[in-house]
Amino acid sequence: MALTVAIVDNNALLRDGIAALLFLPISGLRVVMASDCDDAAMTALQSTSFRVALIGISGANTPSSLSSEASEQTDAPKTHFELAMRLMHLADKPRVVLMNQTPEVYPKAMIQAGVSGFLSTHADLDELVKSLRLAGMGKSYISPSLSTAWAQEGLSDEQERFAELSARELAVMHYVLAEKRVPEIAELLSINPKTVATYRSRMMEKLGVRSDLGLFKLVQSTGLCS
């Protein structure tokens, strides 16, 4: 039985090119969805039956590629971290992220969000199929070129703080930055308000901030949020 794949990428040429390659019989894969990377796509992914999602954050999906006018007209995530937070809501769905070798990417935050693998845009068909098949089996894959680039790039002390946050703490941070109140966050995450308060307190302590304003300034300084 063919492994079913959903492709989400704002770069239509790249998205459709990958879909065409995966339609080849030699891939043994079947594309069931190919769309832009916006809120509608994230909603559609929740109701679409597939085994692995291939999410693109290269080229047209990066913040620098969106003009201010385009940013106002699209609900696509404006940073890679924002995309990671959206991916967190795809529970029990293996995800492989397709990306360029860019220091704007925070792999640890995405791993916390449940990403199964990272694939370079320079990957060939064999590597693409390999990464998707491994994700479908519950295993991880990182393109060698990406792991080398990340090892050389390293993280600043401020960025390292975010690596210490749990997936729930990251989610609470995301909603705090979106100016959501504790009861709203509790409803969105389907947990008790007291639990949200606990996650918020732990998150603030780990990041070394005392207020929402301090949190916002820290996140802005590291480029995690626009």
Tell me the layout of helices and strands.
Layout: E1 3-8, H1 12-22, E2 29-35, H2 39-47, E3 52-56, H3 68-73, H4 80-87, E4 95-99, H5 107-112, E5 117-120, H6 125-136, E6 141-142, H7 144-153, H8 157-163, H9 167-177, H10 182-189, H11 193-207, H12 212-222
Parallel strand pairs: 1-2, 1-3, 3-4, 4-5, 5-6
Helix pairs in contact: 9-11, 10-11
Report on the structure:
The chain has 226 residues and is of the alpha/beta class. 50% of the residues lie in helices and 13% in strands. The protein contains 12 helices and 6 strands. The chain has a 6-stranded parallel β-sheet. The radius of gyration is 18 Å and the shape is globular.
Shape: globular
Fraction of residues in H or I helices: 40-55%
Low-confidence region ranges: 59-74
| Spatial strand arrangement across the major sheet | 2-1-3-4-5-6
How far the N terminus sits from the C terminus, by CA atoms, comes to 42 Å
Averaged pLDDT, please?
Answer: 75
What attributes does this structure have?
about 230 residues, alpha/beta, 6-stranded parallel sheet, globular
Question: Can you summarize this structure?
Answer:
This protein is α/β, with parallel strands linked by helices. It has 12 helices and 6 strands.
